[in-house]
Specification:
This protein has 253 residues and is an alpha/beta fold. The protein contains 10 helices and 8 strands. Bound molecules: zinc ion. The site of zinc ion has 9 residues, from α8.
């Protein structure tokens, strides 16, 4: 680390759970953030500031005015621009020591090779179909997955590392594709809530990368913003899970 980095990360370097070795792990980590939206935006800001050496950003959308209430990576001047490009510009300004790779596309089944280039995936997408595909590919590639969701005043976070039966996977929690039902577009979401959940995702990612603490593997953390209450539910592995269960892998997402 050069003198700028030593001063920049001083509050990490004195933490006994991070320190110099943890900061080096962050520097060499490659993290893919899928969805540069309400969750991906705060997660990307904190992971960039924390010194995650390679950040991949995937989104196929452009910035719209209705994004700005919660997607704090973007400003008014970015409206109409590709999200990944606008996000990369913001993140480079925050931390010039990191590499940012943009993937202006959706995550699909063909993203296996792309996923293998990363050590960790953050899923900040807003629909079950995408979460199913991301979970399947992360299981196939053995990539740890930090998953978040937020709607209205309620959100949740969980971590998965299901290859080899180490932990449950997302499909153990949601076995079959639900109706998309309510979305943030139809019922709304409070911007500060996406900040809470996106920041939790960044925190879990930093714990996984540095090997500190107890990541939310096999547990689901639920936050009730109106009641100001957190709950943590144990999440058992489902032996009949279509992705990580004891039967051969069903490749359909
Ligand atoms: Zn499973």
């Amino acid at each position: 680390m050069n003198p700028d980095e030593i001063e920049r990360y001083a509050r990490h370097l004195i933490l006994k759970d991070i320190g110099g070795p943890g900061q080096q792990k962050l520097k060499f980590a490659k993290v893919l953030i899928i969805g540069a939206g309400g969750l991906g935006a705060p997660a990307a800001l904190y992971l960039a500031a924390a010194g995650v050496g390679t950040l991949g950003l995937m989104d196929d959308d452009v910035v719209s005015l209705s994004n700005l209430q919660r997607q704090v990576l973007f400003g008014s001047k970015d409206v109409g621009e590709e999200k990944t490009m606008a996000a990369a510009r913001t993140l480079s300004r925050i931390n010039p020591h990191i590499d940012i790779i943009t993937h202006q596309r959706r995550f699909e089944e063909d993203c296996v090779d792309l996923t293998e280039k990363y050590d960790l995936v953050l899923d900040g997408t807003d629909n079950f179909a995408s979460r199913f595909v991301i979970n399947t590919v992360c299981h196939q590639t053995g990539t740890p997955l930090v998953s978040g969701a937020a709607i209205g005043f309620e959100g949740q976070v969980a971590c998965f590392h299901s290859a080899g039966g180490k932990t449950p996977c997302y499909r153990c929690l949601v076995p079959t594709l639900p109706d998309e039902g309510d979305t943030c577009e139809t019922v709304g979401v409070i911007g500060a809530l996406t900040g809470v959940i996106g920041s939790m995702m960044a925190l879990e990612a930093i714990k996984i990368i540095t090997g500190s603490g107890d990541p939310l593997y096999g547990r689901l953390m639920i936050f009730d913003g109106l009641g100001a209450a957190w709950r943590v539910l144990n999440l058992p592995r489902d032996p009949a899970c279509p992705v990580c269960g004891d039967q051969p892998l069903d490749k359909s997402p």
